[in-house]
Specification:
single chain; globular; six-stranded parallel sheet; alpha/beta
């Protein structure tokens, strides 16, 4: 991140449970110092009575580790850093609110203003409802694991600051369903879906940022096709692009024309009116989501994957808190 930020070509950075888990399990002394601080922070809260059980202390230590990583990233980028609420709470609005507010409070304790942080939530109905309350409190949200227009529309209607649709994973689903492995970039189902979201937002005046992530070569394996989806979505509000693909873009000498333009929204968006009259109900959201096989399957799959990484991190935090650990951090037990 530090190297890329120095180029001036990136503005923001995002984390997810995989990133935090890998950092916590890496053995890198710098990252392990973050783990130790998180465990000690949680122990102090347990001893003071601010948290009531060892289980709650472990959850706090996990949130604290994510904040420790985010605090360092904020020093490197000029824009947002996204920090994700425990994905095991993807269907628990109230606990998601508790954890999101706690994450923001810890950032503010460290001198990081809430305006620099995006709280990352899965785009379930409960996640969208939690985001609506957080946005009203001045806590900006990044709704992730977006795979269908219904999720994108509901996120915008309920005031989410930003969404992260996963272009490549949408393509993965359609490849599996159709058996078709090669697509022209403009016909790539992930590109089509993200374009629909962009144009819907522009046509109906939503300020929500559409920031596609997760990339695949539309035309099949090969370095010449790695940038297919990125090129086809040039003009998106923002993109999340991994370092190797950023380097490929930097090395490319050919033109990169803007494909998505707000001025085309009226003709490109097929919807005549806002879904749900401008504010979709829970019943309509759930029905439309059910009818979208890709969004239903891939969101569930994504949550399961993030939960698996979170479970690994929890086990690592618990192990790090044991008094016989080789690094001997403080145990997460009240004194």
């Amino acid at each position: 991140i530090e190297e890329l930020a120095a180029t001036g070509f990136i503005t923001d950075a995002t984390t997810n449970p995989l990133f935090v888990s890998q950092a916590g399990l890496s053995g890198d002394p710098r990252y392990m110092s973050f783990v130790d601080e998180a465990v000690e922070y949680a122990k102090k809260k347990l001893n003071s009575g601010a948290v009531k059980s060892e289980e709650e202390a472990v959850a706090l230590a996990m949130d604290r580790l994510a904040v420790n990583l985010g605090r360092e990233i904020v020093k490197l980028v000029k824009g947002y850093v996204s920090t994700e609420v425990d994905p095991r709470l993807s269907f628990d609005k109230e606990e998601s609110l508790v954890r999101a507010r706690r994450i923001i409070a810890m950032y503010e304790e460290e001198g990081v203003p809430r305006e620099r942080v995006l709280i990352k939530l899965a785009a379930t109905w409960e996640g969208i409802a939690a985001a609506a309350e957080l946005e009203a409190e001045g806590i900006r949200c990044n709704l992730t694991l977006v795979f269908g227009l219904v999720q994108a529309v509901a996120c915008a209607q309920y005031g989410a600051h930003l969404i992260s649709p996963f272009t490549g994973r949408i393509l993965d689903w359609h490849k599996k369903q159709t058996g078709k492995d090669v697509w022209e970039p403009e016909e790539d189902p992930g590109v089509v879906a993200c374009s629909q979201m962009f144009y819907y937002y522009k046509k109906f005046g939503h300020d929500t940022i559409c920031m596609p992530a997760s990339w695949r070569p539309s035309r099949g394996p090969g370095v010449d096709f790695e940038l297919d989806e990125i090129r086809a979505l040039a003009g998106s509000d923002r993109m999340t692009i991994p370092p190797p693909l950023l380097q490929r873009l930097a090395d490319a000498a050919d033109a990169l024309p803007q494909r998505l333009q707000a001025k085309d929204a009226a003709s490109k968006c097929a919807e005549a009116a806002e879904w749900g009259g401008g504010r979709m109900s829970e019943a309509e959201f759930r029905f439309r989501l059910n009818q979208d096989g890709c969004a239903t399957d891939k969101m569930a799959e994504g949550i399961r994957a993030f939960v698996a990484e979170t479970d690994k991190l929890q086990a690592a935090i618990q192990a790090a808190s044991e008094p016989d650990s080789s690094r001997e951090p403080a145990a997460l037990r009240a004194d």
